[in-house]
TrEMBL record:
Membrane topology category: Multi-pass membrane protein
The keyword Transmembrane helix belongs to this UniProt entry's keyword annotation: yes
Subcellular location: Cell membrane
Primary location class: membrane
Species assigned in the record: Ictalurus punctatus (Channel catfish)
Protein name: Leukotriene B4 receptor 1
Amino acid sequence: MFTQPSRGTTVNSTLKQSVYSWLYHCLTMRYLNFSLNQTSESDFLITNGTVGYKQVGAAVFLSMCCLVGLPSNIAVIITIARQWNRRMSFTLKLMLNLAISDSLVLTLAPFGVSGLLYGWTFGLWSCKILMYLVYCAMYASVLTVTLMAAHHYHTIKSKVADLSALERLQKVRRHLLLIGLWSLATVFALPILFIQNVQFKRGSSRCQRTITSHSGKVTVLVLEVLFGYVLPFSIIAASYCWICKTQLQGGKNIRERKQRMRRLVISIVTAFFLFWTPVHVINMIDIATTLTKASSPAVYTQLKLIRRATGDLSKTVCVLNCCVNPFLYAIASGIFRKKRHHHETENNTDITVTN
């Protein structure tokens, strides 16, 4: 069960004030240095280049995600950590892991905002390392949501008489799963260290991928779509389809007992796919532009225009998923508080079922 920490409000207030101060300086005070471009009403000129309304919109969006999501995720981490014990369900441990990965992404978001507004000014190795950490945290988030679905599938499907023996056996395996999850995330993000570079483009320095080989670029993008979207979607869809089918055949008491936690997990999964779809659509457009550059110049030009118009904003949409998850936790926390006394006698059963 979730319980709100007594100092949660203070933590949220302090963090929000700090982030808001940074946001005010970044998006308000620095506008004093802007001057309108005489040749284009939609662009603003800064000392180191030109920033269009698309970049400003993406920067504002990313800043608001950081302002709202970071304090909320930290509050979730504190809430779950205060209840840490040996019998904590594995689902809650996965939620804690998800909140940690979301917090890491949002902590690094200000560097992205600065890059959008003023160009990349932190150097080559900062570009490589910071983007590697972002991709590592995002892959960890993807794998955590996937593991949630697979865990629920395995829990419902497994029917073992000696639950205590199963619990002891799986404790070690579950710790290994979490270690393996982060290990895979670090491996999947490794290409970023080699392909991420600083380029001077459209009047400012940008931290972005630089791959000279067309086949290499297509390979990296295909692997990213495959391991970051297609395979997780397949596993999650198959797991929850089987779960829904099984629950329709189960008794009423079983459905009611498991409904609350399952609703939360399904909500997290749904939000994940809604917010991650745009960035992978952009990846597929990048694949198409690479393949049509030589054979179909007209198609390449049109795809490039679409990519340039929607790329920055689409990439920031996935960060919104990091802000939504804490509110899903808050909803669940309210349900737990309201039904705390009603479910007190069922706690051990719930922990065993979801563990």
